[in-house]
């Protein structure tokens, strides 16, 4: 990629950073609410882990912190959608298309800030989970990072795929919220995977949240290191790659998106 393309993308990234800093409330809410819920749910998570055979020394944060982090990260699909749909609502998308930036550059530049926000959200929740709720990682913190990065990319790419498949922000919001809740249930974010109902078990591997929780549990509960989380991290990379392919196949720069129903 030449210098001109890099300059164009850098300008777009700077604009997205300014917009994020101007209204950081969505990021703050998605970061604070998991911690608030964790404060109420920690005793239940502790009981569920102990009933599942995790031992008597667990305090519930081992399930609650990664579970709430994963669940609320998937709600970021709405933010991804708004970041794209607002250009149409503000009538600035055609101006961007008329500029020198290529359509792929417009997509790639938008991903940078969204991915950084997703990683920041996960980082704050895990660090605060350790400070506020006594989260103990029996394995490697680096293993958590190896899982968190492809998870964040998968969520952002899922949001981008919904952008190209939905015509209105209302459609995207409904689908995104449903998927976030379904993935939270199937992935073991709401309850330990060992306590999931029998009917849900066969469907769980089709949810990226399942592999994220599997990787986090390996590092937090089972003392796993980087080699132990390569499988879930690799599957998350496949999810991200597949969703990127869907985005590229169905993306049409000339499609008109509506920021209303």
Task: Write a concise synopsis of the structure shown.
Residues 25-254 form the ABC transmembrane type-2 domain. The protein is mainly alpha-helical and 261 residues long.
Structural class: mainly alpha
How many β-strand stretches? 0
Mean pLDDT over all positions: 87
Shape: elongated
Low-confidence stretches: none
- Approximate strand percentage: under 5%
Number of helices: 10
Q: How far from one another are the termini?
A: 38 Å
Could you estimate the helical fraction of the residues in percent?
over 70%
Instruction: Please compute the radius of gyration using only Cα atoms.
Output: 19 Å
Number of domains: 1
Oligomer: single chain
Major sheet, described briefly? Answer: none
Membrane topology: Multi-pass membrane protein
Keywords: Antibiotic resistance, Cell membrane, Membrane, Transmembrane, Transmembrane helix, Transport
GO biological process, one term: response to antibiotic
Organism: Streptomyces harbinensis
Summarize the structure in words:
The protein is mostly helical. The two termini are 38 Å apart. The chain has helices spanning 3-22, 25-51, 61-74, 76-89, 93-98, 103-133, 141-165, 169-187, 208-220, 230-250. It has one domain (3-250).
Identify the notable features of this structure and list them briefly.
261 residues, mainly alpha, 10 helices, 0% strand
């Amino acid at each position: 990629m030449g210098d001109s393309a890099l300059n164009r993308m850098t300008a777009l990234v700077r604009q997205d950073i300014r917009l994020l800093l101007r209204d950081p409330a969505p990021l703050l809410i998605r970061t604070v609410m998991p911690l608030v819920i964790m404060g109420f749910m920690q005793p239940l998570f502790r009981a569920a882990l102990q009933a599942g055979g995790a031992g008597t020394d667990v305090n519930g944060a081992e399930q609650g912190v990664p579970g709430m982090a994963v669940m609320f990260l998937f709600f970021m699909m709405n933010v991804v959608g708004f970041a794209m749909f607002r250009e149409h609502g503000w009538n600035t998308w055609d101006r961007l298309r008329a500029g020198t930036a290529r359509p792929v550059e417009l997509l790639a530049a938008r991903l940078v800030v969204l991915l950084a926000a997703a990683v920041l959200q996960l980082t704050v929740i895990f660090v605060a989970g350790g400070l506020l709720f006594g989260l103990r990682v029996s394995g490697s913190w680096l293993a958590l990072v190896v899982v968190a990065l492809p998870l964040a990319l998968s969520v952002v790419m899922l949001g981008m795929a919904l952008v190209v498949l939905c015509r209105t922000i209302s459609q995207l919001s409904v689908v995104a919220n449903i998927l976030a809740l379904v993935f939270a249930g199937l992935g073991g974010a709401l309850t330990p995977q060992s306590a999931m109902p029998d009917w849900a078990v066969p469907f769980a591997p089709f949810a990226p949240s399942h592999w994220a929780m599997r990787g986090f549990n390996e590092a937090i509960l089972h003392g796993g290191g980087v080699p132990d989380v390569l499988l879930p991290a690799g599957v998350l990379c496949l999810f991200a790659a597949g969703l990127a392919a869907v985005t590229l196949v169905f993306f049409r720069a000339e499609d008109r998106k509506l920021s209303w129903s």
